[in-house]
Every structure is written in C-alpha cells, then in structure tokens.
Design brief:
Elements (H helix, E strand, L loop, with lengths): L1 H24 L7 H23 L5 H29 L5 H12 L7 H9 L1 H27 L15 H21 L2 H15 L1 H7 L1 H11 L2 H13 L11 H27 L6 H12 L5 H8 L4 H26 L2
Helix pairs in contact: 1-11, 1-15, 2-6, 2-8, 2-10, 2-11, 3-4, 3-6, 3-12, 3-13, 4-12, 4-15, 5-6, 5-13, 6-7, 6-8, 6-13, 12-13, 12-15, 13-15, 14-15
C-alpha cells in the first residue's frame, strides 16, 4: 500500500535534513554553501532526474500523452484554486505578512521535494507527470508570485528598483513583465528538461540513449543526488529559523489549515469528481496530483521574499513550520485519497 511507502519515504527524507542542520549549527558550512547546493540541485541534478525519467520509461509517447495533459490541466486547476482562496482569506492580514501568507499558501514545494518524492514512490512515469505539473507552478510563480511581492512596491521582475519608479512600473508591467516572466518559465531548468525528455520520448530516441551504459549510468548517479541534497539544503535553511513567539500568530494557523488540509482535499475532490463524470483519470495521475498539492510550502518563497524586499524572516518561519508539519499531513491526505 502506497501509504506505508509514503510514510517511510517522508521519514527518510526528513532524516536527510539532519546533516544540513548539524552543518549549519556547528558552523561547518560557509555562507552561501546552501545556495550553492541549491543551484546544483536546481540546474543540474533535478533536470537530469527529469530527463532520466523520460529515457528510462519503457512505454511509448502515445501511452502517456493524455495523462500528461490531464496532469497539466489539474495543475492549472489547483493553482487557480489556491490563488483565489489565498487572495480572499488573507485580505485583512498585516501588509508584510499578507504577501508571504498568500505566497506560501499558493505555492507548494512541488519541485524541490515533490519530484524526488514522486520518483521514489511511483517511478519514472510518475516523475514525468510531476515535471509536467511543475510547468504550471513555474508559470504562476513568475507571474502571480512576482505580482504578490511587487504590487505597488516599484519593483521589477528581477527584484531591482525602488519606490521612485512605482508609476513607471505600474504602466510598463503589463507590457514587459508578462514577457519576461514567460521567458523565465520557458528557460527554467524543469521546463527545458521536460521538453528535452518529451522530444526524446516522442521520437523514440529515449530507448537508444538509455541503452548506452555510459550515459544512463552517469545520469542515474547524478539524479540520485536530488533527494539527499534537496533535504540537506532544507535542513541548512531550517537551522537558522527562530520560532519563538511565532505560534501566537492566528494567520499562521489559517495558512497551515489551508496549505496542508483544506486545499489538497479540495483538489482531491475535484479530480475524483471529474473521474466520476467520465474523464479517464488513472491512479497514477490521481496520486501525483494529490501528493504534489499536499507538499509543504515552497522553499522558493523565502528566495522571493529576499529578492523583492518582503518579510523574508516571516516567510522562512512559514516554510519551516509547513515542512515539519508535512510529515504528518501528507500521509493523512494520501490515506484519505485511497479510501
């Protein structure tokens, strides 16, 4: 039963955070070490994991294209739902906190934690679907995510600028911001790796590449770095978090309830409803969508907060609590999904 595998896998991933916490607490890693590891995962190991999933898949492109489109559609539905709810629920929160509450509610750790988790649990085909899910994630984070952090703050999409260019930003954002955001999505490592994998799979070249032992063995060894290094990076970031007094924040509880229970359950209900009315939703598509919707708040929220001069400390605390809590809530969500 997948719930047992999920519990053990999530537990193993959390144990992998311990080296990062120890290294940071004992000052065994210099400043910027976590960022360097993060870049290694984001730009090298994770794209290779995605490409490896495509070339190691034994089926044909015709076997998965419909499921891939369904995952893309479900990802779009999930992000729209999360966005609408987050915008409505946190309207009365303090300004600095409101931005981070919305950002962490909308965006889950579907790439950094979700892709390796899916690959371990469900295999190469599911990892393909997870990479498709993250295309929508990147589209939303570089458009709506930037909008949340920069609206009426006079910031451009790269985080530069000051309040003196507010008017110019507001008038030009509609014309330039969207294109720059789309370029960031198009050239994001996950998007590039997904398209490379799709081309290899659609052309049938994936089987020939996989048969070359030197290539497949190298890709396998590098893609195996994703899970441990991702969790070490999260551990390094968690080690710096001070949660004193944080649990007096009523909005934090609303965020946790939405991010970990209500919104994943809503996504689960939508997918299940669509399957009941005749849309052919496979078990793999269903589980991939539910698991990725139930992952904790995106660690990139802290990066966005720092980039756009928002409350990075508050964002870090939200991500930390969310990451710790998911060890209990993710198995619960999947258990409900399988009832």
């Amino acid at each position: 039963m997948i719930i047992n595998d999920l519990i053990s896998t999530v537990a193993v991933l959390f144990v992998m955070m311990v080296p990062g916490i120890v290294m940071k607490k004992c000052r065994l890693c210099p400043d910027g070490f976590g960022k360097g590891l993060s870049n290694l995962v984001l730009y090298i190991a994770q794209p290779i994991l995605i490409v490896y999933s495509y070339i190691s898949y034994n089926g044909k492109f015709s076997d998965i294209w419909l499921d891939a489109l369904l995952v893309l559609a479900f990802s779009l539905v999930a992000h729209v739902l999360f966005s609408v709810v987050a915008m409505l629920v946190f309207r009365k929160a303090p300004d600095a906190h409101r931005r981070m509450l919305r950002l962490t509610t909308i965006f889950s750790n579907a790439a950094f934690m979700g892709i390796p988790l899916i690959e371990i649990l469900l295999g190469a085909q599911a990892a393909i679907y997870a990479s498709i899910y993250n295309i929508t994630f990147n589209l939303f984070v570089w458009t709506l995510g930037v909008h949340i952090c920069t609206w009426e703050r006079g910031r451009d999409i790269d985080g530069d600028g000051d309040s003196d260019i507010k008017d110019e930003y507001l008038s030009a954002a509609k014309h330039t911001g969207a294109w720059r955001a789309l370029l960031k999505v198009a050239f994001h490592p996950v998007t590039i790796a997904s398209f490379v994998g799709l081309i290899l799979l659609a052309s049938g070249a994936n089987t020939y590449v996989f048969r070359v032992d030197l290539i497949s063995d190298c890709l396998l060894m590098i893609k195996n770095l994703v899970a441990p290094l991702s969790m070490v990076v999260i551990g390094i970031r968690l080690a710096d978090i001070n949660l004193r007094g944080f649990f007096n924040d009523v909005y934090m509880y609303a965020f946790l309830m939405l991010r970990h229970l209500l919104l994943p359950l809503a996504v689960m209900g939508i997918v299940k409803l669509l399957s009941l009315i005749g849309i052919p939703v496979s078990e793999t598509v269903y589980l991939v969508t539910v698991i990725l919707a139930a992952t904790p708040a995106a660690s990139s929220a802290t990066m966005f907060a720092e980039m756009y001069d928002c409350d990075a400390l508050y964002a870090s605390r939200l991500v930390a609590v969310s990451t710790i809590l998911c060890i209990a809530t993710m198995p619960l969500i999947v258990m409900i999904a399988q009832l």
